[in-house]
Amino acid sequence: MTQNGDASRGMESLRGKTTLREVLEVATGFEASARDFYTALIPRVSKRIRYLVEDLAAEEQTHFDLFSAMSQRADIAEQVKLEIQRTASDSKFSDCLQVHDLGEQPDDQAVLQYAMGREQAAMQHYGELAQTAPPGPIRDLFQYLTSEETRHKLELEKLYYAIIHRGGGV
C-alpha cells in the first residue's frame, strides 16, 4: 500500500475514535438538554401526565449530576484520555441534543412518543458504551445508566399503552 493509502486509512480510523472525556461531555449535554426540555414542558402538558414529566426532569438532573461528578474525579483523569471506538448509536444519540418543539399544548401521545424515543436512544448508546469502555468507574456508570434508561422506557411504554391504546387514565 502507498503512503497516501496508509494515511487515508489512518485518518478514517481516527474519525471512528473518540476519547472518554468527549463521551462524558456529550452525555452531560444530552442529560442537560433533556432536563431543560422536560422542565419547560411541565406547565404545558395535561395534568394526567404532568407528574411523569416532573419525574423525567428530576431523573435527567440526577444523570447530569452523575456525569458532572464523574468528569471532576481525579482518580479517572488518565482514563478519560483513553480513546474508544465511536458507537453505532453515536450520531442518533447526538441528534437528541436538539430537542423538538412539541407546541404550546402538546398532547399526551406526542409527549410520550418523544420521551420514549429519547429513552431508547440513551438506552442503546449507554449500553454500547458500557460494552466498549474499559473496566472501571466509567463503565460502571454506563451500565447503571443503561438499566435506568431501560426502566424509564418500560414505564413510558406501560403508560403509553394505558393512556393511548386503552384510553384510560393513569
Describe this entry's structure for a reader.
The chain has 170 residues and is mainly alpha-helical. The chain has one domain: Ferritin, CATH 1.20.1260. The chain is built from 6 helices and 2 strands. It has helices at 3-15, 20-41, 47-72, 90-95, 108-132, 137-165; strands at residues 17-19, 83-85. The chain has a two-stranded antiparallel sheet with strand order 1-2. α2 (20-41) runs antiparallel to α3 (47-72), α3 runs antiparallel to α6 (137-165) and α5 runs antiparallel to α6 (137-165). The model is unreliable at 5-15 (pLDDT under 50).
Q: Helix and strand layout, with pairings?
A:
Blueprint: H1 3-15, E1 17-19, H2 20-41, H3 47-72, E2 83-85, H4 90-95, H5 108-132, H6 137-165
Antiparallel strand pairs: 1-2
Helix pairs in contact: 2-3, 3-6, 5-6
